[in-house]
Design a protein that fits this description.
Length: 382
């Protein structure tokens, strides 16, 4: 068995209402200057904790992530100077994956001279010397517990990853009540992203039993709860299960990471400007079908983790899981074709080119995927 390093937040606090605990955690860490990054719909929810922080003497800089788009280098460069000038001793990021990723990067780049363009890739960040707290308000990215952040690089039009232990929060506050207001569409897309994280980690070339446990439990929770969370937004049991699934997926990202679904989704979402989760959801069944023969036993176990019956044949059981995932996606309102999202046939070769550039993820795929395979996958779901 290969060696593996599990890097996680020092503290993971899960439970209804825990999102408000960030003030006490900052005070316990003896920090004074706090950068709070969030987004417009949440400021009213945070009003009480912000008032509490100021009453207790904390100096706050509240930055609003006011962009509808997923984070790019220009968005980061709009916020970065304000962070550097303030010199925060603690960064608290409260929001979806975009807010958390930007908050993590602001924390790591608030001092020193490094820029995002210097650190695209793995283990290129120099250090981080402040307290970092992440509070997710979606259940999908797992950014609150992962060493990853994603930015769209406007220089070449590609989404790129920054992976470093310095991006792992000190504390993750996972409060399922913070996802109650998430609209059905985003609930579905982010939930399918969590499912992708778990499936890609479990079937990964570098999968490991220490991570498989998280992945299988995440798969089970998404399959059994996503539809309810989409249709009944205030269902605390479904929202709690989805928040846990997202956390489990995020815990898979450090030691194992994702593979071909994410590699093929980066260019797709970047070029057509739809969400990362949506791109992953549309691609997932087709990529699973491509990868299935690489490990029929593991793909069958995915179906069993979802609660589907054992058909007495690995291939038949594996196929039943892929079919059920496609049906779940459709039932949650996810489009089932690229053409319905405005993707043009003549763009598919360029998308395949872009996918081939994401070698750090393609190298994880359980089956070698070449340019012609990427093109074929895109064509199969056009």
């Amino acid at each position: 068995m290969r060696s593996i390093e599990l890097i996680q937040p020092k503290h993971i606090i899960f439970g209804a209402g825990c999102a408000q605990d960030w003030v006490d955690i900052v005070l316990a860490g003896k920090k004074q200057k706090v950068l709070l990054l969030s987004t417009h719909p949440l400021w009213a929810v945070l009003e009480k904790s912000i008032g509490n922080a100021r009453e207790k003497g904390l100096e706050l800089l509240c930055l609003d992530y006011s962009w509808q788009a997923e984070p790019d280098t220009e968005i980061f460069e709009n916020l970065h100077p304000q962070s550097k000038d303030f010199g925060p001793q603690a960064i608290v990021a409260i929001g979806g994956g975009s807010v958390l990723d930007v908050g993590k990067l602001l924390a790591a780049l608030s001092s020193g001279t490094q820029k995002p363009s210097d650190v695209f890739g793995k283990n290129l960040l120099d250090s981080r010397d402040n307290l970092l707290i992440c509070v997710p308000t979606t259940a999908g990215t797992g950014s609150e517990v992962s060493p990853n952040a994603i930015l769209f690089d406007l220089r070449d039009g590609e989404k790129k990853g920054i992976i470093s232990p310095w991006l792992i929060p000190d504390t993750a506050l996972i409060d399922p009540e913070m996802t109650f207001s998430l609209p059905p569409k985003l609930t579905a897309e982010t939930g399918m992203d969590a499912l992708c994280h778990c499936i890609e980690a479990y079937t990964n070339k570098y999968a490991h039993p220490a991570v498989d446990l998280y992945a299988l439990k995440g798969i089970e929770y998404v399959y059994k709860n996503l539809k309810t969370a989409v249709k009944e937004g205030n269902n605390i049991e479904a929202r709690s299960a989805m928040a846990l699934a997202s956390m489990y997926g995020g815990l898979c990202l450090g030691p194992v990471n994702t593979s071909a679904v994410h590699a093929l989704s980066y260019g797709l979402a970047g070029k057509y400007h739809f969400s990362h989760g949506l791109a992953n959801a549309v691609l997932l069944p087709a990529v699973m079908l491509f990868n299935m023969e690489a490990d029929l036993e593991k793909n069958a176990r995915i179906a069993l983790a979802m609660g589907l019956p054992d058909k007495g044949d690995l291939k038949a059981t594996a196929r039943s899981g892929i079919k059920a995932i496609q049906e779940l996606s459709r039932d949650c309102g996810i489009p089932q074709s690229l053409s319905s999202l405005g993707v043009k046939r003549e763009d598919l070769p360029q998308l395949a080119d872009m996918a081939m550039n994401v070698k750090r993820l393609l190298n994880n795929n359980p089956r070698e995927l070449e340019w012609k395979d990427a093109l074929s996958i895109y064509q199969s779901i056009l």
